[in-house]
């Protein structure tokens, strides 16, 4: 004889030689014989045992349980007292009926996108991450959605949820902002056989994602190649001197000629230009010598111009003094004043006109 105490919200199963014979709910009981007793808490799920099919043959136990069979292409969401508890995958799941209010929502996952009736707040709760794939596209991006190797559609900025089923889902993120591409160290030979290294820069923006990334492969590499070939063709038809004189116009001409070709790739080329032209050492030295010679010539020209102006000024002054005796005397007095500033002592001898004597002294 055994005394059995079944707690509140519990159920006891009594087995005789492995076979379920009795189901007891809350209360006290006397059990005769060598019986196996197993108690279950109704707050927990009923365990899916190997003998669960045999146990469910007991009508009393069966009436106390909710048996949820989930197919391979289904997910069942379980809510405990209207609060999300867990998500059920394929298989058999069993819940007690009476103690707690369990509700179940069944969804088919053959479709790709998660049903919008499932609140987004549940996406990261419990084990939902096992059943949902989340894709987030930022504000400055767009994404190509590829399902089972086939392009499906373009995803705008936002959050997307897809069932984690057998479908292969790929996303290719594309930055739709205006971008810059550097083409550095382009070695190009001019028409007069001068080898240069050119650093080129271009600004572009993706306009047609479908054309650029579905219809074309490595679209950035194609843009690079188009610009590179056109740059080589343009510079190759110019002499070094022509290049130096027209390098500002070269960028505008090149932009106009390649714009249509690049637009056919779904790319809008907005600007391009030569950043640097790097000369070989010998050419650079010759250019420096030419520059020095030009600056010296300019300096000599300025010096001669100033000397000519000074001589012309003296000639004009001499003509004025020749025509005006009073102006000549004022000029003489000016020079006497300047000389007197540097003379410490002047000695005069004899009588006569002092001014005449000074003139004779300084006129010597």
Q: Could you characterize the architecture of this molecule?
A:
- The protein is an alpha+beta fold.
- Among the domains are: 178-279, Band 7 domain (Tetrahydropterin Synthase, Chain A); 288-336.
- The protein is 34% helix and 35% strand.
- The protein has helices spanning 52-55, 59-63, 209-213, 219-236, 240-263, 281-323, 325-340, 354-363; strands at residues 2-6, 10-16, 19-24, 27-31, 36-41, 65-70, 74-80, 83-88, 91-96, 102-108, 132-137, 141-147, 150-155, 158-163, 169-175, 179-189, 195-206, 267-278.
- The protein has a 3-stranded antiparallel sheet, with no helix packed on it. It has a 3-stranded antiparallel sheet with strand order 8-7-10, with no helix packed on it.
- A hairpin with a 2-residue loop joins strand 7 and strand 8 (83-88).
- Helix 4 runs antiparallel to helix 5 (240-263).
- The longest helix is centred in the last third of the chain and has 43 residues, at 281-323.
- The termini are far apart.
The best one-word shape is elongated
- This entry's quaternary arrangement is single chain
Helix content: 25-40%
- CATH domain class of the domain at 178-279: Alpha Beta
**At CATH's second level, what is the architecture of the domain at 178-279?**
2-Layer Sandwich
The stretches of 5 or more residues where confidence is low (pLDDT under 50) are none
Note the main sheet: 3 strands, antiparallel
Corresponding CATH superfamily of the domain at 178-279: Band 7 domain
Strand content: 35-45%
The side-by-side strand order for the widest beta sheet comes to: 3-2-5
């Amino acid at each position: 004889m055994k005394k059995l105490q079944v707690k509140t919200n519990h159920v006891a199963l009594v087995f005789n030689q492995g076979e379920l014979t009795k189901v007891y709910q809350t209360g006290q009981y006397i059990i005769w014989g060598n019986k196996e007793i197993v108690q279950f808490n109704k707050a927990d799920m009923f365990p899916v045992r190997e003998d669960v099919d045999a146990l469910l043959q007991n009508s009393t136990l069966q009436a106390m349980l909710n048996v949820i069979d989930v197919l391979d292409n289904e997910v069942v969401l379980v809510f405990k007292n209207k609060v999300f508890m867990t998500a059920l995958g394929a298989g058999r799941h069993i819940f007690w009926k009476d103690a707690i209010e369990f509700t179940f929502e069944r969804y088919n996952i053959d479709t790709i996108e998660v049903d919008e009736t499932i609140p987004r707040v549940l996406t990261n709760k419990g084990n939902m991450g096992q059943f949902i794939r989340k894709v987030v596209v930022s504000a400055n991006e767009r994404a190509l959605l590829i399902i089972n190797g086939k392009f499906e559609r373009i995803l705008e900025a936002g959050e997307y949820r897809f069932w984690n089923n057998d479908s292969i889902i790929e996303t290719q993120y594309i930055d739709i902002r205006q971008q810059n591409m550097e083409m550095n160290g382009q070695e190009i030979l001019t028409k007069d056989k001068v080898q240069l290294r050119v650093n080129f820069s271009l600004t572009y923006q993706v306009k047609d994602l479908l054309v650029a990334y579905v219809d074309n492969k490595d679209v950035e590499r194609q843009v690079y190649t188009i610009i590179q070939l056109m740059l080589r063709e343009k510079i190759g038809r110019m002499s070094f001197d022509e290049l130096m004189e027209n390098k500002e116009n070269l960028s505008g001409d090149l932009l106009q000629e390649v714009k249509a070709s690049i637009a056919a790739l779904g790319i809008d080329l907005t600007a391009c230009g030569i950043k640097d032209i790097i000369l070989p050492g010998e050419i650079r030295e010759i250019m420096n010598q030419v520059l020095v010679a030009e600056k010296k010539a300019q300096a000599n020209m300025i010096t001669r111009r100033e000397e000519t102006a000074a001589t012309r000024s003296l000639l004009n002054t001499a003509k004025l003094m020749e025509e005006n005796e009073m102006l000549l005397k004022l000029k003489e007095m000016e020079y006497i004043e300047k000389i007197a500033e540097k003379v410490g002592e002047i000695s005069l001898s004899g009588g006569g006109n002092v001014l005449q004597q000074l003139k004779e002294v300084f006129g010597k």
